[in-house]
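Listing S7. Sequence submitted for prediction.
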Amino acid sequence: MFQMSVSVRNRLLIVLAFVAAVAALLTIACSGDDPDDVLTMSYMAGFKAQANLPFVAVYVAEDQGFFADENLEVDIQHANFSGAHKSLVLTGEVDITTLPASEMLQIRANTGAPYVAVMLFGQRGDFGYAVLKSSGIESPADFAGRDVGFKGIIQAEFHAMLSAHGLTTEDMNMIDVGFNPVVLVEQQVEVYPVFLSNEPDTLSRSMGQDIAVFEAADDGVPTLGVVYVVSEEFLEDDDNIEKLERFLRATVRAFEFANDDPEAAIESTAKFLPEDPAPDLVHEQFILDTELINAQNDLTRANGVGWFTQQQFRALTDVLLEYGALENDVDLEAALHRDSLEEVHR
């Protein structure tokens, strides 16, 4: 019987292994999307055009050619006050949109809407509580006995902040104030809830007020900001996963671009802002600068921009549950999709 020498057998095994490896690579290449194929995707910002970081990431990615580098064409749209983006992403008419993390969790828990977060911008929440320095309020502990405003609903995070100071809303006069900060200037309330990225600038620079702003996160309350969201159905399609990874890769680049050169990012953003009335680019710069700070922490510095963990969302969910914002718990395994962002940063 023919006896193959050890050296010949070893060489043959190496050749066979090489052929098998090449065949496997060819199979993967043929079964996946061609990176040269141009894909299309629709994005709807959750509000009018402005320099919120999740919006800027898309504006910059488009203007600087980052989407083009990914062979991705993105239809950029903006929601109006009706909140149409919330339903359009569920019906598949829009692929990806933006929502505050707490709102995404509440809608998912209370209605069953299958939203899925794929990237986190605000590593802390977007809400704060402004007071005039002349009011003598030096911390949330001083809200007791005061007229305190809220916008439609009293946030669970606000309840948690009060609890950290031994207070509840029963200790103050709560007033629904709407969305005009002039009520603080006119002292219709002594505490006014603000969107951190824009209203402090409106109060201090535009209205000339000397203010202080308190945040729940400063009292150890877990808070989170805006996320990109898609639907569960969107993620069931492999072609959509490819689109999503291209989109995230481009917007991560844009996020880093904005962080390195915020003024250049505003130049790109200005091309998407309405011309009438003329945009206040100083105000837009304030929005972006504020959100860039709040979008970064030790977690993102270690893992990459936009990073998030299930533990972060678990902590926020527990606060929402404790203070009655959720009717049911949230299945975070289903509500969070980290694989695409991990692939981008890998």
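Caption to Listing S7: primary sequence and predicted structure tokens for the chain studied. The chain has two domains: 39-124+224-345, 127-219. Residues 39-124+224-345 form a domain with the D-Maltodextrin-Binding Protein; domain 2 fold (CATH 3.40.190.10).
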